[in-house]
């Protein structure tokens, strides 16, 4: 666990006061995971989290994940969360950071489709509710680098391998090829 990544997470929370996890679990799957948590805090929002480099990269999405292709919603980039936060559901006590109820809205694995230089990510989610492709774009809305966009992408047509087959024609020859798998036509 990259301890440094979670500094801000720990700074905001008191381990003795909140039931939230603090990154002690070392469990790891083969596929990176994602989770979307419905967080009924001071303001209802959805927390979108992607496993990245041993922690959960996180965005708070006030309007929830956009479902219509082309639709985009504000996604406020927040501090990394520990990996085991992905399993967290429960009550964050009054007076604590993010006080309110957390429920897992969806979870599953994802594929990283593209990672842009500026930090933008395109991911294909395989969840229980969500199946499809979303882009996270560091759009700096209102000049604030925390203000990203999450965009529902149109699904690309299923990738079909392009193979140019030659039509199967009989070939004239003086010698018969050996082995199984050959058919002969007498000319
Ligand atoms: Mn939250």
Compact overview of the structure:
With 187 residues, the protein is mainly beta. Helix content is 3%, strand content 40%. It has one helix spanning 7-12; strands at residues 33-40, 44-52, 55-61, 72-82, 90-92, 100-115, 121-127, 131-137, 147-152.
Overall description:
The protein has 187 residues and is mainly β. The chain contains one helix and nine strands; from the N terminus they run αβββββββββ. It has one helix at residues 7-12; strands at 33-40, 44-52, 55-61, 72-82, 90-92, 100-115, 121-127, 131-137, 147-152. The chain has an eight-stranded antiparallel β-barrel with strand order 1-2-3-4-9-8-7-6. The model has no long low-confidence stretch (mean pLDDT 89). It binds manganese (II) ion (MN).
């Amino acid at each position: 666990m990259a301890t440094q990544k979670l500094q801000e997470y720990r700074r905001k929370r008191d381990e003795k006061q909140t039931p939230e996890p603090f990154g002690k679990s070392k469990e790891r799957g083969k596929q990176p995971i994602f989770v979307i948590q419905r967080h009924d805090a001071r303001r209802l929002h959805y927390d979108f989290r992607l496993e990245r480099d041993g922690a959960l990269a996180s965005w708070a999405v006030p309007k929830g994940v956009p479902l219509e292709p082309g639709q985009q919603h504000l996604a406020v980039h927040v501090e990394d969360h520990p990996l085991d936060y992905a399993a967290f559901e429960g009550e964050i006590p009054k007076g604590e950071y993010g006080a309110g109820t957390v429920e897992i809205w969806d979870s599953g694995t994802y594929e990283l489709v593209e990672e842009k230089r500026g930090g933008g990510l395109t991911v294909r989610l395989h969840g229980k509710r969500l199946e499809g492709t979303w882009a996270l774009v560091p759009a700096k809305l209102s000049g604030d680098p925390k203000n990203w966009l999450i965009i529902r992408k149109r699904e690309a047509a299923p990738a079909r391998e392009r193979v140019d087959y030659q039509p199967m024609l009989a070939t004239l020859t003086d010698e018969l090829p050996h082995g199984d798998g050959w058919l002969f036509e007498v000319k």
